[in-house]
Design goal:
alpha+beta, four-stranded antiparallel beta sheet
Amino acid sequence: MKIDEYIQHRRSHFIKEFSGKTVPDSVLDKMLENARWAPSHKLTLPWRFRVFSGDEKNKLCEQFEKYYIEKTPSEKFDQIKLDKIRTYKSKISHIISIGMKPSGKVPEWEELAATAMAVQNMYLTLGDEPHAAGYWTSGNGAGSEWMRAYTGLEEGDKQMGFFFLGWVDQKRVEAVR
């Protein structure tokens, strides 16, 4: 494919599309390697990724469930949403926590943008993979102090969400723009 095709065919694929099969670690390694090549002013390389798989992934999924139960006001509580969260363990292959460590050398917005570009590189990497897919979520307590601490980020770091990686039997390529 040419670069414009990779960009135009990049898609988010969601948990309901995941089969539960495990994405090979080689795909994950390639995603993380390509993320490192995102531009960052003064080479601050502000992104901080932590991969959760196996038992560690399952424990993180339990944290998502606990967060939802404890932090959702009763009038907004949705049992269907909780049931969906409970499917994460069996459907998601890997979870990548997306963090950003401000350097103080450049404006913070530049480091947030650099981290987002690193995530875009991960997305584009999946263009070469016929069955590996995923999406960046800002739900499940993303950005909260709870998840910042749980994912091992330091005080002052920003927890910017999670990239859910899963196996899909067939990718969608069409989108209306």
